[in-house]
Amino acid sequence: MARVDNQEILRDDTIASLYDAAIEPATRRRGLSMLAQTLDAAGAFYLVWDKENNAVTDCVVAGTLGADFATLYRTRWGVVDPRRRFLEAAHAESIFVSHYDRTDAIDEDGSFERAFLAEQGIGHSLGANVTGIGRDYRQIFVERAAGRPPFSAAEVIEFRRLVHHMANAERLARAIDERALDWELPQRILDDMSVGTLVADQTGRLRFANAAAEEILAENDGLSLRDNRIQAARSFETNSLLAALRDIAVTGRTDKPDGGALLIARPSGKLPYAVVVTPLTTAVAGEGKATRALVFVSDLAHRNNELAPRLSQLFGLSKAEARVAAGIAAGRRLTEIAEEFDVRMPTVRTQLRAVLKKVGASRQADLVRIVLALPPMLTSSVEPVR
User: Fold this and answer.
1) What share of the chain is helix, strand, coil (3-state, %, to 5)?
2) How far apart are the C-alpha atoms of 303 and 264, rounded to whole Å?
3) H/E segment holding residue 347
4) Least enclosed by CB within 10 Å: which of 34, 130, 205, 344?
C-alpha cells in the first residue's frame, strides 16, 4: 500500500512540475527528470521543431541520457528521426510506442535506431506531440535503456495521461504569455510618451508611473515622492493636488473650475509643470467608480525633438521647413530660429511661407493650433531632424 501511495505522490509531483516547466522553461529539466522517473525510464527529452526550416530550435534532455545526446540530436539526428516524422504525420493525440510502431522500414530509419539510439544505450521509446503541428511544434520522448523490458500497456496509458497535462500546460503558458503581452504593450506605449503619466489614489499614493513621470519625480524639481506619495515643492500646491484627488475619489469628478488642472512651480526657475487630474474609472460591483486618478504632467520646458520629423512625415516638409514649424509651435520667434540654425532671416521667412502653404494654415496661430491637435508623440518613434 505504501508503494502505491508513493507512486501517486510521484505522479502528482510530476504533473505539478510539468505545469511549472511550461510556465517557467528554466525548470523544464526537473519536469523531464520526474517524468522519466515516473515511467521507470533512463531519461526524457523535450523537442521544439521548426518545420519551416526543418531544424531543431530547442532540445532539453534530462535523466541519465548521454551528455552528447542533445548536441548529436540537434546537429545530425533530429532531421532523420523517424519517430518525430511519425508523430508529425499522425493524429494530434497519437502516441508513438517503439515496439508497436516500427520505424526501420527504410535504411535511413534503421540507421537512426542502430547508429544513434543504440549507441546512446536506448532500447525503447515513447513519444507524443504536446502542441499542434504548425510552423513549429513541440514533442516529448521518454527513453528506456536497452536490455530493459518494453513499456507496458499500463505505462503507455500513464504516459498518455501525463502528455495530456503537458499539452494543457503548454496552452496555459501561451495564454499567460498573451495576457502578459496585452499588459506589456500599453505600458510600452505609455513609457514611450513624453508626457508624464501617473496613477494615484486619494491620498496621493503612487500606484503607477511611466518612464517620463519617473524621470520628472527623480529630478525633484517641483514634484517628488515622499513615503511613496506625490508632493509639490510648495505646500499649497500639494494641497491643491490632493484636493483634486480626493474630489475624484468621492464624486468621480472634479467640481471646482480649476480643480482638475494646475501649475506646479519648479525651484530651479524653469517653466512650471502643467498637471491635469482626471478620473480613472473601474467597474466595481457592476457600477463605475473612480477610486484612482490619472495624473498627466507636462514639462513646459521640455523641447520636443520628435516634433520636427513628425511634421515632415505628415506634411511633406523639408528638414529646414520642419525645424521652422517645430520652432513656431514651441513659441519661439523667427529671429531665435534663424540664430539657432545660423540662417538668414529672409531664408527663414521663405521657409515659413512654404510651411504654411503645405500645412494649410494662413498664419502662425493656425499652425500652432494644427500642431496642438496632432496625436501625442512617442519618444522613440522617429529619428530627429538635424
Assistant:
1) 45, 25, 30
2) 18
3) helix 345-359
4) 344
Rg of the chain in Å (alpha carbons): 33
Please tell me the class of the 307-372 domain: mainly alpha
Please return the burial class of 270, using the count of CB atoms within 10 Å of its CB with bins 0-12, 13-18 and 19+: middle
Q: Which helix H or strand E contains 137, and what residues bound it?
A: strand 136-145
Extract the C-alpha cell encoding 342: 545660423
Report yes or no: 351 and 324 within 8 Å, Cβ to Cβ.
yes
Global pTM? 0.56
Q: Which residue has the higher pLDDT, 356 or 94?
A: 356
**pLDDT (0 to 100) of residue 102:** 55
Q: For 195-299, CATH number?
A: 3.30.450.20
Amino acid type, 232: A
- Residue by residue, what is the 3-state secondary structure of 76-122? HHCCCCHHHHHHHHCCCCCEEECCCCCCCCCHHHHHHHHHHHCCCCE
What is the per-residue pLDDT across 288-343, written as a single tens digit (0 to 9) for each? 455 788 899 988 877 777 788 889 999 999 999 999 999 998 888 999 999 999 99
Between the alpha carbon of residue 93 and those of residues 60, 79, 356, the distances in Å are 22, 22, 66
Query: Are 2-180 and 307-372 the same fold in CATH?
Result: no
DSSP 75: I
Q: How does residue 385 score in pLDDT terms, banded at 50, 70 and 90?
A: very low
Superfamily classification of domain 2-180:
Transcription factor LuxR-like, autoinducer-binding domain (3.30.450.80)
Domain ranges of the chain: 2-180, 195-299, 307-372
Helix 2-23, helix 28-38: angle, nearest 10: 150
**Order of all β-strands in the sheet with 273-284:** 206-209, 196-201, 287-299, 273-284, 261-264
Contacts of 117 (CB under 8 A, 6+ apart): 123, 125, 143
DSSP assigned state of 228: T
pLDDT for 74 equals 92
